[in-house]
Design brief:
205 residues, mainly alpha, three-stranded antiparallel beta sheet
């Protein structure tokens, strides 16, 4: 959720022959500051000019930010569609950041990539994940089934982004989870209730 509200920017390491001390940096910056400030004002004015005419056929998270970014893209000549592609690529990168930084998300992704689909209880799923989990367990690794259920509540949107759907249903006294990759999801699954497809979990699950 936090990553959806951030811009990830990778900076290259400054080569030794391009480094400078702080006094030199600020001296050069202050010489350029009037031009930078003027360029910033031009960018704001150009963005505000195009903003009323921006119409998006797909709306990413942080919709207002996306409209402003696309208005700026129209001002610079980049264009709305290219800016939307950049934003969507950024969203995909955010998803990968979550997957790579969360051991549970990575384990579930690998688990479903091998099986295609799986149905069972949260307790059984945790048992299977534990079989391939590193020892000692990573920080944040669920110790009990209800911990895993809460974790899935947090991760279900991220897993959906990489093509893994999570549904729940009751079977007698048991609560079952169904995990499927997008390649395995059949048209019959669309007949499930919206509550199931949304993979929302009750507090007592």
């Amino acid at each position: 959720d936090l990553l959806d509200r951030l811009l990830l920017i990778e900076l290259e390491r400054i080569a030794s022959d391009n480094r400078m001390d702080e006094a030199t940096f600020w001296t050069q910056f202050n010489l350029e500051k009037p031009k930078l400030f003027g360029a910033l004002l031009d960018a704001i004015a150009g963005t505000l000019k195009h903003l009323p005419n921006v119409r998006l056929d797909r709306m990413p998270r942080m919709a207002d930010f996306a409209r402003i970014a696309c208005a700026y893209a129209e001002y610079t000549g980049t264009g709305t569609e290219k800016m939307l592609d950049i934003i969507m690529q950024h969203t995909s990168r955010q998803t990968q950041e979550v997957l790579e930084s969360d051991p549970v998300a990575t384990a579930i992704r690998d688990f479903i990539q091998k099986r295609g689909s799986w149905t069972g209880t949260a307790g059984k799923l945790l048992e299977l994940l534990n079989e391939t989990a590193p020892t000692p367990r990573p920080d944040g690794w669920p110790k009990q089934a209800n911990n895993l259920t809460r974790k899935l509540n947090v991760l279900h949107a991220t897993l959906n982004e990489v093509g893994i759907s999570i549904r729940r249903e009751k079977s007698g006294a048991s609560r079952l989870l169904t995990l499927e990759s997008s390649a395995e999801t059949s048209s019959a699954s669309s007949a499930s209730s919206e509550a199931n497809n949304h993979a929302g979990f009750d507090r007592d699950d």
